[in-house]
Amino acid sequence: MQFMRYINLFSKVCRVSTTKCFMYNNQIVFAVPKGQVSFAIGKDAVNVKRLRDTLRKKIKVIAMPAKDDDEGIITFIKDLVSPVEFTGVEIKDSGVTVTAGRQNKAALIGRNRVREKELLDILKNHFGFSKVKIA
Fold first, then answer.
1. Cα angle vertex 79, ends 54, 18, to 5°?
2. Which of 82, 52, 77 is nearest to 63 (CA)?
3. Which value, in Å, is the radius of gyration of the alpha carbons in the chain?
4. Residue 63 pairs with which residues in a beta bridge?
5. CATH number for the domain including 35?
6. d(CA 53, CA 59)
7. How many domains does the structure of the chain reveal?
8. DSSP string across 90-114
9. Cβ 79 vs Cβ 27: under 8 Å
10. Same domain for 42 and 94?
11. Are strands 27-33 and 58-64 parallel, antiparallel or unpaired?
């Protein structure tokens, strides 16, 4: 119910319709169609700032790729976990393997595997992956 309120507010402020809203790393992430990202952010990020001030939470707007676009999914994961960087992503039938260095691997996994579980939930709900491995 809370996410529906976030989506409704996002649509009113940014004038961009989306159905993808989720939490990752204590941020509210909105996934919009690729061509409307800059319109959703607004000039000088005015829309994101207005949402941040209204909700009092960090806001991130990223592009939503198609389900069968592997390059788009890799870019989606990169945008989602930024500023943490990784060396590579391998997409297999029903799983995703993210490789990263030691420090970045720890940041991707999180304490008590919280970030890894959040990433798995997002990829499962929107792309149908059943496994996420961080190596």
1. 50
2. 77
3. 15
4. 32
5. 3.30.300.20
6. 10
7. 2
8. EE-SSEEEEE--HHHHHHHH-GGGH
9. no
10. no
11. parallel
Identify residue 107 by its one-letter amino acid code: A
CA distance linking residue 49 with residue 43, whole number of Å: 11
Distance between CA 88 and CA 48 in Å, rounded? 29
**Which residue range forms the structural domain that includes residue 42?**
2-64
The one-letter code for the residue type at 102 is R
Question: Letter for the amino acid at 131?
Answer: K
What is the rounded distance in angstroms from the CA atom of residue 43 to the CA atom of residue 47?
A: 8
- Which structure tokens are listed for 19? 């159905």
Q: Apex CA 78: angle with CA 61 and CA 116, to 5°? A: 100
What's the CA gap between 15 and 20, in Å, rounded? 15
Question: Which secondary structure element, helix H or strand E, spans residue 132, and what is its range?
Answer: strand 131-134
Whole-number Cα distances in Å, 48 to 30, 53, 93, 97: 10, 9, 35, 31
Amino acid letter, residue 115: R
Residue range 27-39, pLDDT digits in tens:
999 999 999 999 9
Confidence (pTM): 0.91
Q: What is the pLDDT of residues 116-129, one digit of tens each?
A: 999 999 999 999 99
